[in-house]
């Protein structure tokens, strides 16, 4: 064949063709009656081999049995994350490593080993005491931390504006309206009671 020219008379397949097994063609064929699927059951039905990934036969699947992640799952939690907001906490007691009057930024915090990454927001918390005057620049800070930094004579600059907290929808009473106090029972008037004797005899002027 190497020396012959290829034409329709000498073409051969690269490998021999294997005929497809025909099922349901009688008991003598070896795949008759149940066509190799067994008797009943889910895998004997049509479409049983097109189940989605993670399907467990109808029982409670694994992704519904495991515990769910807690936290903020709203879409407005971006850009930190679509499901959870994350910050790197730094307490005021950790800032004692800096010199008095120093500028504290996320870069200097990373250089001192107080945070791991510059891609995650830094939030200042109020655990501990601060005795040095520092100029702090972070993404967020708690009310306690702001109070302690101001008490030491320092300043805090926020890189992100704090989000206004939503007020709880409390059912308040209209102004000028107070709860009705139960009225005290009125004192009964002192009434002089006299025993009267009823008689059928007529009353005369002489008393007879």
List keywords for this structure.
208 residues, little secondary structure, Ribosomal Protein L15, Chain: K, domain 2, 3-stranded parallel β-sheet, 6 strands, 9% helix, 11% strand
- Low-confidence sequence ranges: none
In the CATH scheme, the class of the domain at 88-158 would be Alpha Beta
Largest sheet: 3 strands, parallel
Quaternary form: single chain
Tertiary shape: elongated
Q: What value does the Rg take, in angstroms?
A: 45 Å
Q: What percent of residues are in strands?
A: 5-15%
Helix and strand composition category = little secondary structure
Distance between the termini: 167 Å
| Reported CATH architecture of the domain at 88-158 | Ribosomal Protein L15, Chain: K, domain 2
Q: Percent range for helical residues?
A: under 10%
